[in-house]
Amino acid sequence: MSEDVVNGIKAKHRAMWALGDYPSVATEVIPALGPELVVASGIRPGEHVLDIAAGSGNAALPAARIGAQVTASDLTPALLDAGRRQAEGDGLTLEWREADAENLPFDDGSFDVAISCVGIMFTPNHQASADELVRVLRPGGRIGLINWTPEGFIGQMFKTMKPYAPPPPPGAQPPPLWGNEEHVRELLGDRVTDVVAKREKLMVDRFGTPEEFREFFKTCYGPTITAYRNIADSPERVQALDDELAELARTNLDNGKMEWEYLLFTAAKK
């Protein structure tokens, strides 16, 4: 694949995540995930921590709050800017670094802990990002990942949107594969030890109706916005996607609550 093609893919990816208001998703819908990942990863004060595909910092900020030295990296400057504003408001000090998870600008063995909270899963080349994740860790350094499972609600949402979304880049793998334990083990191979993988459920109580869920994601979530833009010239397809997303939410909404499954994966670099 030529450099121009790769750069074009990265530009589209960067633009997608700048759409809408992902910081609202992080703070209103999934705020519990970042702190949970920090605890599961055993992050301690003074440790050098890299948050890969950090977005607006839903895991980086809690790590900094307990005294870790945190670098939050992401491909999308707009998300880093939002995280930086939040950190300043909270009196926290972090390094915010624009970086491609498939080609990180850090030396080998630079960090004690590398984490990613529903972020690294969206890189097109899973193996490349996994290789970088391991490379930047010191021997004995720890990995902590939270990713949506293929079978869970968000995995099913991406399955629902797929027929309406633009085609993925050549060779790109589906994001929810990072929520499959066997897939992650294969990506990391024999370079890690002390693997612990657990499927967990996030209780989401942000949405009172299926339509409220759909409209929030149509407004705030880059991949959903992109899918709708792709079919904007077809009212029939827009209506079909409207109906399918509402139905998906309806079948998962119980008294104003939803359960979204994710994989919590921790390991140590050999």
Automatic annotation (TrEMBL):
<dbReference type="InterPro" id="IPR029063">
    <property type="entry name" value="SAM-dependent_MTases_sf"/>
</dbReference>
<dbReference type="GO" id="GO:0008757">
    <property type="term" value="F:S-adenosylmethionine-dependent methyltransferase activity"/>
</dbReference>
<keyword id="KW-0808">Transferase</keyword>
<dbReference type="GO" id="GO:0032259">
    <property type="term" value="P:methylation"/>
</dbReference>
<dbReference type="Pfam" id="PF08241">
    <property type="entry name" value="Methyltransf_11"/>
</dbReference>
<keyword id="KW-0489">Methyltransferase</keyword>
<feature type="domain" description="Methyltransferase type 11">
    <location>
        <begin position="50"/>
        <end position="143"/>
    </location>
</feature>
<keyword id="KW-0830">Ubiquinone</keyword>
<protein>
    <submittedName>
        <fullName>Ubiquinone/menaquinone biosynthesis C-methylase UbiE</fullName>
    </submittedName>
</protein>
<dbReference type="InterPro" id="IPR013216">
    <property type="entry name" value="Methyltransf_11"/>
</dbReference>
